[in-house]
Amino acid sequence: MLLPEHYTADRLTYVDPYRVRYWEAGSGPPVLLVHGLGTAAELWQMSIGPLSERFRVLVPDLPGFGLTDKPDGGYTLARGIHFLAEFLAERGASRASVVGNSMGGLLAAGLALEHSQMVERLVLVDTAGLGRDLGLVLRLLSLPGLGEVMAIPMLAALRWALGSLFYDPRRLPDHLVRTVHGHRCARAARHSLLKVTRRGIDLRGQRPEILLLDRLSGLQVPTLVIWGRQDGLIPLEHAYRARRAIPRCRLHIFEECGHLPMLEWPDEFNRVVADFLSQETGAPVPPSR
């Protein structure tokens, strides 16, 4: 784990009205990192240290995941966006750049659309919400009965599922597998995973009501879209859709990379993101790669 020496694990705060576990490191312009479905702050374990050399990095566990409270319900897109806005306000960050992966990218884009005054720059990493197409595993997880069986925390099955998100499964950090497995052992965590999944996914893929593609032309902030070319969960075509829809958009594609470029190619990922976030406000967005 590439964490800074001054990093302090598992800080706690209260947000609307959940008890929230979060990480914080560094100083400077604030940057919010938002994890995806079924993971937690540990998803960013290889980014928080490098990014904290130039930014104040904030990394919460979303409600229902990690060590944050797991309510019985309320898992809607609107509630998720509201949580991000309230978390930033609670941490004294009236304006921040936001980086989101998968479901976290959907929430980050929603925050930029609903609270544009709070978002300086936006980075969408293999993000959800750009089309119905979705890998089979998550579609099956949405099914009643089968989903409950799939959510049972078996270490070998979880290792396979997380490894399938990589182009090269050997790059999957063992620490991430064991941490997610530990989180999933709690019945409330499995309940939350299924609730969130079924809110946004059915057997046909991502539910139409969570899709934001038709609204992306309204994004007013400079945006970087990052994608793994071999993403088997959300296809690369969604990245091109985002680039066409977002007015001030740059696209960076990682070769030999799956759904989690921040873990599969961390050095290049951190460099690309830090360089984009460091550009002066109002500077032209660099050409797409």
Task: Please tell me about this protein's structure.
The protein has a domain at 8-134 and 210-278: 3-Layer(aba) Sandwich (Rossmann fold). It has 11 helices and 10 strands. The protein has helices at 48-52, 77-90, 103-114, 136-141, 146-150, 155-163, 174-184, 187-200, 237-245, 261-264, 266-278, and strands at residues 8-15, 18-25, 30-34, 56-60, 96-101, 119-125, 201-202, 205-206, 223-228, 249-254. α2 packs across α3 (103-114). The longest helix has 14 residues, at 77-90.
At the fourth level of CATH, the homologous superfamily of the domain at 8-134 and 210-278 is Alpha/Beta hydrolase fold, catalytic domain
CATH architecture of the domain at 8-134 and 210-278: 3-Layer(aba) Sandwich
Number of discrete helical segments: 11
CATH class of the domain at 8-134 and 210-278: Alpha Beta
Distance between the termini: 29 Å
- Total beta-strand segments: 10
CATH topology of the domain at 8-134 and 210-278: Rossmann fold
Helix content: 25-40%
Q: What topology, given as strand order, has the largest sheet? A: 1-2-4-3-5-6-9-10
Largest sheet: 8 strands, mixed
Overall 3D geometry? globular
Instruction: Give the oligomeric state.
Output: single chain
List the helices and strands and how they pair.
Blueprint lengths: L7 E8 L2 E8 L4 E5 L13 H5 L3 E5 L16 H14 L5 E6 L1 H12 L4 E7 L10 H6 L4 H5 L4 H9 L10 H11 L2 H14 E2 L2 E2 L16 E6 L8 H9 L3 E6 L6 H4 L1 H13 L11
